[in-house]
Amino acid sequence: MKIGIFANDNRRSQEVKRQLEIKFHERHIVMDNQDPDIVITIGGDGTLLSAYHHYIENLAKIRFVGVHTGHLGFYTDWRDDEIDDLVVSLQSDNGQAVSYPLLDVTVQYTDHKIEHYLALNEATLRRIGSTMVTDVYIGGELFERFRGDGLCVSTPTGSTAYNKSLGGAIIHPDLEALQLAEICSLNNRVFRTLSSPMIIAPNDWITLVPGKGSDFLLTIDSDSYHNKSVARILFKVSKKRIYFAKYRHNEFWRRVKDAFIGDDYGD
Ligand code: NAD
């Protein structure tokens, strides 16, 4: 079993990385950042997202483990003072894994070029300078003409990220669903949108067909692509998944509670 380490530049993350390298060396654990079986990320959710995109071609064979050096993250459930326990878990690894759904995004540009992306959290299409007008199709049927700042399509694990700030629901990652959430829709007597987040079934798909414009902003997780002339975008649940090494059970709703509610209920 070969281990890769992917750390952010933060001083504490680099320190934890050095400590892990020493422990691996002492225990003859093989390190390989080129062709790893397990990738340990050290930092925050952003670091895990970067590692995911770095190793995106090898998702089927890699299991991720997230160590956080800041506050508890959604993909990073090992504290940086638990690395001794992590090393013991790695030494007794028997391939245990948990996997989560990913979002498949196909963008067709007005020059007919086609690009594919695979998002772990979400993809958004936005227009900054003027209203984004976009026809929204669900499963090939025209559903509505959206006007506003943009639209966000998220995965279940991404439902606690940008989607949550947009008022979207939190979806348990055992459900293979996509969520469509609006970003500042225009609603009045003339223009109407559903104005509620929608949960899309795994056998359905979402298509956005924007009106004319060459100034769309497309985001895929932390990456942004500016000034794009988008003809249409298709979103569906990917056949690929992301795998995490499951050395201990961190129940999803407990994680949501720890991140957003805490134990202090006030008076
Ligand atoms: P970042 O790495 O600084 O992350 C921003 C915050 O989002 C961090 O607190 C991180 O812990 C949290 N986060 C990331 N993924 C999460 C998840 N699945 N569940 C709960 N929290 C999560 O910022 P970045 O690298 O620019 O973007 C990474 C992600 O940040 C994006 O995929 C997006 O979901 C999120 N984001 C959220 C908002 C918002 O809520 N208004 C705005 C921009 C980006």
Could you explain how this protein is built, in words?
The structure is a single chain. The chain is built from 5 helices and 16 strands. With 267 residues, it is an alpha+beta fold. The protein folds into 2 domains: 2-96 and 246-260, Rossmann fold (3-Layer(aba) Sandwich), CATH 3.40.50.10330; 102-239, Tumour Suppressor Smad4, CATH 2.60.200.30. The strands form 2 sheets. Strands 6, 7, 8, 9, 10, 11, 12, 13, 14, 15 and 16 form an 11-stranded antiparallel β-sheet that branches. It has a 5-stranded parallel β-sheet with strand order 2-1-3-4-5, sandwiched between helices. The longest helix has 16 residues, at 11-26. The termini are far apart. The site of nicotinamide-adenine-dinucleotide has 16 residues, from helix 2 and helix 4.
Low-confidence stretches: none
**Total count of helical runs of at least 4 residues:** 5
Q: What structural class is derived from the secondary structure elements? A: alpha+beta
- What is the alpha-carbon Rg in Å? 20 Å
Oligomer: single chain
* Sheet with the most strands, sense and barrel status: 11 strands, antiparallel
- How far apart are the termini? 51 Å
- Please identify, by name, the CATH architecture of the largest domain: Sandwich
Strand and helix order: EHEEHEEHEEEEEHEEEEEEH
Write the CATH homologous superfamily of the largest domain.
Probable inorganic polyphosphate/atp-NAD kinase, domain 2
